[in-house]
Amino acid sequence: MTTGSPEGPPPQWKDIHQSILSTLDALNASTSWIATAATVGIEPVFERVLQQVCGPAEVSPQAYIEHITRDTGMRREVQQRLSRLMENPKLVTMRREAQRREAEHQLHVLHYVLSGKQPPEWVWTTLDEDQREQLREAAESGEERDDQLLPRVQRAIHKLEVTPGIYGLCEDCYAIILLERLQLVPWAECCAACQRKREGIPDQAPQPEVPITYF
Ligand SMILES: [Zn+2]
To answer: Which residues belong to the signal peptide in this entry (predicted)?
Structure first.
């Protein structure tokens, strides 16, 4: 691999860049990458594209990234492609499904610790013996009991079981609650803005979208 050493010809950045763009466009028309992106994010998908194109061109993916970081036009073209992939409706649906499943899992585990009521089999079987033992101790000690949190957790579990379509929607403004918020607070009834309103906290500037961290 070379990044354009003085002995060799300089890398054909334009051609490499065009190949990257057309590979990303081709991806958007297929579905093969969606399951990966839904579980581990878009970064590994992008990395595979970089390897695919940069390998045969004998440049390192890092050198390409450095090159387009200095070129606003090229960088923007790649960012647009990546944003388009992130907005793919199938990916969005699959991410939300995966998130719902994960939230349900977290909520059942939390419910066990809060109430002492053992979680369903599908949750229990995903835990290893150490985790089960820790949870059992916490549940039996009753130290984590929280009368305020327990009903909220029960309500979220009920929602997921009975009307999963409305889980993750704000109860006050019906907006979709950000995934990042649900990961931290799977029992959230509201989006962050409405939660602040409920608690009488003044509005803050909206949080920026999660950036793609390559540039
Ligand atoms: Zn809201």
So the answer is: none
Residues having C-beta closer than 5 Å to ion ligand 1 = 170, 172-173, 175, 191, 194
Name the residue ranges covered by the structural domains of the chain: 13-87, 90-198
Structure-block tokens of residue 114: 């809060």
Q: Please tell me the distance between residue 153's alpha carbon and the centre of ligand 1 in angstroms.
A: 19
Distance 6 CA to ligand 1 centre (A): 58
Question: Residue 208 Cα, ligand 1 centroid: separation in angstroms?
Answer: 16
Distance 88 CA to ligand 1 centre (A): 24
12 alpha carbon – ligand 1 mean position (Å): 49
Distance CA 31, CA 180 (A): 24
Q: How far apart are CA 51 and CA 56, in angstroms?
A: 8
* Domain spanning 90-198: CATH 1.10.3470: no
Judged against a pLDDT cut of 90, whether residue 205 lies above it is answered with no
Tell how far the Cα of 168 is from the centroid of ligand 1, in angstroms: 10
- Alpha helices (H) in the chain, listed in sequence order: 13-28, 34-40, 43-57, 61-69, 72-86, 89-115, 121-124, 129-141, 149-162, 179-184, 192-198
Contact between residue 169 and residue 175 where contact means Cβ atoms under 8 Å apart: yes
The predicted model gives 84-102 an average pLDDT of 89
- Gap from CA of 79 to ligand 1 centroid (Å): 29
Q: Can you tell me the distance from the alpha carbon of 14 to that of 12, in angstroms, rounded to the nearest whole number? A: 6
Query: Is pLDDT above 80 for 4?
Result: no
